[in-house]
Amino acid sequence: MLLVDTHTHLDMPEYEGDLPEVIERARAQGVEYLLVVGTDLASSRKALSLAQANKGLYASVGVHPHGASNVTDKEWEELKGLVHSPKVVAVGETGLDYHHLFSPKESQQAVFRRHIELALEAHFPLIIHNREATADCLSTLKEYSARSPRGVFHCFGGSKETARECINMGFYISIGGPVTFPNAHRLREVVKSIPVERLLLETDCPYLSPQPQRGKRNEPAYIKYLLPVLAQLYNLTEEDIARITTFNAFQLFGMGTNRQEGKIAYTIRNSLYLNITNRCSNTCSFCPRLEKPYVKGYYLGLKKEPTVEAVLEAVGDNIGRYDEVVFCGYGEPTERLDILKEVANILKEKGARKIRLNTNGQGDLINGRPICAELAGLVDSVYISLNTPSADEYKELCSPGFEDMAYPALLAFTRQAKDSIPEVTLSVVDVPGLDVETCKEIARELGVNFRVRRYNDLG
Ligand code: SF4
Ligand SMILES: [Zn+2]
User: Fold this and answer.
1) Is the pTM of the predicted complex or chain greater than 0.85?
2) Which of 278, 398, 455 to mutate to test ligand 1, by most ligand atoms within 8 A of the CB atom?
3) What's the pLDDT tens digit per position in 293-312?
4) 126 and 82 in one domain?
């Protein structure tokens, strides 16, 4: 397991006696990437020197809102100079703290603006501390929205609505030890509303130790205590949470490597997904297929379409251990109907328990013949993306290459599928403004199941 602690204060005196051991214990838990976050000029300098001296450590430079009124112009210029040093990956921690008010609001706001400017100039993400200052924090950031600031709200403790606003602005949300506290029911409910694609993990050490270390000095190895809690909240495995949040941290901070070969077979929970093509007869507005073909921490961009042998090799042995095998990915599997059928047939023989096809329902048009009967005995379940309650809206949302023929074809495919495939489901993605009820009614009339997938939650 590979993990990132995106918020540590390892520069603090708490670690003077045993920092090498602390880093060693983190590595032993898979926490190989640590971000040391500066809180003033001296601490930013120290964060940087730790990062430069230790593999896997990175630095962020900034002035905590607590110290905002103390920064002189000279200090700020020096801090700005640090940004371009190797291993600096972010600006902060900055933000607003109206709880303690160690610095007056006006100077906190002014210094926050300086950080935002600096991050935008340097093309770095911001690490934001917000305490009881949500409205000002968000409105200040929005002043810069034309330049798309990026970053993370660290140790998030706000409401679902605030989380949604941060996400809509393109920010990530970082969760620490408090999510493990027995009485943190509200926070756990909020976390559930955050797409896992925007989630980061942190300790904020030496503060905020998770259960069962609560009250003691915190350290990066304790990230492990977050995993079971988050896995349960998201109905994912601990490995899924680790892979996805690590991927997210790499994306945001530009550390590590993300550009893997496109995955042909990948697991989420206990399902095996097969990505056999990136081609699709639609160009749905919500689909990241063309720009960002990532799903749950996997990169799915294929350099070339895999052969049957390549798919089988990617699948590996012991296919019977998966709950289901799903033809999915960013692309339309029926674009490669022959490969799909051959692989499904072989996997059935090898003991696959259940085979599902996720499709846009245009397979008849793509292949120039009705294809449902050919899937009988090979596919146990089919999910067809209905997406909209009418053909006009479908054209608008999905830009089908088959234009006016696409929507009727998908309805016809759904009707025929009932004769050959045991389980047939129409699905929609709850993009804002969609008339879900009418879609549900269509599924009812066709006599098939209905499922709503969360916007931004593919896979
Ligand atoms: S049908 Fe699926 S793969 Fe194709 S563009 Fe739409 S969302 Fe993407
Ligand atoms: Zn901090």
Assistant:
1) no
2) 398
3) 888 888 898 888 899 999 99
4) yes
Range of the domain at 40: 3-253
Contact 202, 172 (CB under 8 A): no
> Has residue 459 been placed in a domain?
no
Residue ranges around ligand 1 (CB below 6 Å): 280, 282-284, 287, 289, 330-332, 360, 385, 398
- For a pocket test of ligand 1, which of 332, 365, 427, 428 has the largest count of ligand atoms closer than 8 A to its C-beta? 332
- Tell me the residue length of the chain: 459
Q: Evaluate the omega torsion of the peptide bond into residue 197 and state whether it is cis, within 30 degrees of 0.
A: no
Q: Which residue has 């100079």 as its token pair?
A: 81
For residue 205, give the DSSP letter.
Answer: B
Longest C-alpha distance within the chain, in Å? 76
Distance 128 CA to ligand 2 centre (A): 9
- Model confidence pLDDT, tens digit, residues 86-122: 899 999 999 999 999 999 999 999 999 999 999 999 8
Taking each helix axis as running N to C, give the angle between helix 238-253 and helix 226-234, from 0 to 180 degrees, rounded to the nearest 10. Answer: 100
Compute φ and ψ for 331, nearest 5 degrees: 160, 170
Mean pLDDT score across all residues of the chain: 94
Determine the 3-state secondary structure of 355 from DSSP. Answer: strand
In angstroms, the Cα distances linking 119 to 77, 91, 104 are: 14, 6, 23
Whole-angstrom CA distances from 434 to 346, 411, 449 are 39, 18, 18
39 pLDDT more than 60: yes
366 and 322 in a common domain:
yes
CA dihedral 392, 395, 396, 397 (to 10 degrees): 120
In-domain check, residue 306: yes
